[in-house]
Amino acid sequence: MSLIKHHKLIETNVFLLVLGIFVTVIIGGLVEIVPLFSIKSTIENVQGVRPYTPLEVAGRDIYVREGCYNCHSQMVRPFRDEIERYGHYSLAAESKFDHPFQWGSKRTGPDLARVGGKYSNEWHVRHLINPRAVVPESIMPGYPHLAQRPLAYDTIDANMRTLDLVDRFETYSQVDGAIENAVADLEAQATPDADTSALVARYSDFAFGPDRAEDQVTNMALGDLDGNPDVITEMDALVAYLQVLGTMVDFTAVDQTRKAEWIR
Amino acid sequence: MAEHPERDEITGRYTTGHEWDGISELNTPLPKWWVWVFYISIGWSVLYTIAYPSWPVMSGFFGGATGWHARASLEDSLAEAREARSEWVTQIAARDVPAILEDNTLRSYAMRGGEVLFKENCAPCHQTGGAGAYGYPTLADDEWIWGGTPEAIVTTIQHGIRNDTDPDARSSEMYAFGEWELLTEEEIDQVAQYVYDLSHGEMNAGPGQDIFVAQCAACHSPDAQSPGGEGNKDLGGPPLNNRIFLYGGTKKDIAAQVYKPQLGVMPSWSGRLSDEDIKQLAVYVHSLGGGQ
Asked: The complex's ipTM?
């Protein structure tokens, strides 16, 4: 081959070697970067998607910390058997506020993209403490420590500010008062009988627009979620996160014309 | 580096002509067939990107010459599945659960479908075959909290119990007699003893029964003759005259329930499963053993 004959030239000339590496990296870079220029066009236009509440953000961090993604994907692929088992296929719009996204590629356990509302809070707590207590044949590890550890949330507002930055100020900056009230919102969501109206209104306004009808409220798990009303634990946060997964878009309300746009 | 390939004396093969400090590299070319498969794959992948959605362009992406789209092909396979099942599904949609139970073929179809749906959605709480677990009622026996008629089962599945997502969910709350100081410790002990005896088949008159009639019977039995015996299906108060307990049947468990009750929560399924799916589930649950 001609290249074999000439590679001595490249190997012995630093300038040519560097140039060769440079060209290779540029090609790789283009393949990864150019598609991002048109990424907006791949995100469906649907109502209801909102950024995670502070408690859910904290729960999501625990999900990532504990490595749940090693066994669970969060993407219902557009195949018939997946849809019959899990529900509507996932939309790009549904994970547009996920950094990093949790689509995953490994399913030792079931997909969790639509697990929100499928079980009670109490079931999740029992299952996470010891999966065998409710699913005798389960091979999922138990996470009993989550119920014991108080949630550290004093930096949750900084956490949200960072997510906002990553999203080019399109998330929390657009939710009225989200960052200023982050700690208060988190406590309200996890405390039984707390006043959650401001929290719910904030995120509902983002999800459905400020002119939303009064009964158009975004779904979120409220109250004492882990059966221990005295402390906000990591378990509270994780359950809040699991209970919102896949519940933001109301697919029964998505009309067929809009759906046809997703199928170009 | 040596300039010219030369024959290696020991192996008898040619070298690549590269030599570093006296060590030279044998030339072992890839098999011809392999090289050709490689080139054909490259050609194939180019054709593939022409046929299917691929290259980004400024305002979107190139949709592919064949016009194939993952979601469109999904709609086709869903339509095909609907078509294949339509004969049964339309019949299920057109009838109510008692009518399905009467028709043997339709019923066995619904049983199969119901079993699959039950495994995926209900077994994590109610266990395989509806065997039940702590806090999750057995669905295979004839004790019912909210009712074992086909209509009651359908309503329970559609709306769930004490969840905060469905406004029509069944709900009721037992008072925290101890925590709210409605009963003293002694009274709780007496009433727990009464319930314990009741669950072992003895209805003993005494202070325990008096407290029960005054405080508990309204929710646990509409029948004054058998305080606690019947259960109250409208208020979700289970019958207490047998050893089927959600939260344990020792005297200590019963006293704990009276002090501060646990209340079971079941999600609502009407948004998640279709009406036909819920009917199949109701047929399945009704046929597990205790349908009324």
From this structure: 0.85
- Please indicate, yes or no, whether residues B108 and B82 belong to a single structural domain of this protein: yes
B174 carries a ligand binding annotation? yes
Beta partners for residue B61, in sequence order = B56
Tokens at A225, concatenated? 């979620």
Residues B161 and B195 in one domain: no
Residue B203 belongs to domain with CATH number: 1.10.760.10
In a domain, B118, yes or no: yes
pLDDT (tens digit, 9 = 90+) per residue, B159-211? 999 998 899 999 999 999 999 999 999 999 999 999 999 999 888 889 999 99
Alpha helices in chain A (DSSP H): 2-12, 14-37, 54-65, 80-86, 121-129, 145-148, 156-166, 182-190, 197-208, 234-244, 256-262
Q: Do A41 and B16 touch (CB under 8 A)?
A: no
CA A219 from chain centre, in angstroms, equals 15
Q: Which residues of B touch A (CB under 8 A)?
A: 1, 16, 18, 56-61, 63, 69-72, 74-75, 77-78, 81, 120-121, 124-125, 127, 133, 135, 163-165, 265-268, 271-272
For the record, the structure tokens of B12 come out as 């008898």
Cβ atoms of A218 and A48 within 8 Å: the answer is yes
Q: What is the span of the domain harbouring residue B244?
A: 185-259
Q: Cα B132 to the chain's mean position, in Å?
A: 14
**B179: distance to nearest CA of chain A, Å?**
15
Give the span between the Cα atoms of A102 and B13, in whole angstroms. Answer: 53
Same domain, B252 and B109: no
Do B115 and B254 sit in the same domain of this protein?
no
pTM of the model: 0.91
Domain count, chain B: 2
